[in-house]
Amino acid sequence: MKIRKNENGFTLIEALVAMVILTIGIMSMYSMQITSIQGNSTANQITTAATAGANEVENIFAMNYDQLVDTDGDGLAGLQDSQCCPPTVCTAMADGCAPGPDGYAIYWNVAVDEPMPATKRVVVTVARTDRGVRKNVVYEYMKAQIVQ
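Request: output the structure for the sequence above.
Response:
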């Protein structure tokens, strides 16, 4: 009696193992794609905020030196003042506000004679709350008084 070994094709277990390995690979690529899309969305939001802030900085620097006023008189030009804008009543009011695109709020604060006399330090903050987290893009510039 002759025993024939016929090893043509795959067994069911080999086929199942190959399918599991293929599934793990496809799911890994799917996860990478999701992460990539989220990263692109975040980058788009940062670019929008940076562009809005740069536009507002250009508008502010088109103003005369005397038009930049520290309205709350606190002399602070940092982020601590960018909590709210008029007509909202609050304790830490920004010195100026402008509407921003897509839910962004643009605030600016002015510090007079800082860091030296006849200059104003202007901090422009573009803020957005995303999923309960406040995200800021901050520009800090100085404007000197032109003496004639």
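The two ends are 116 Å apart (CA to CA).
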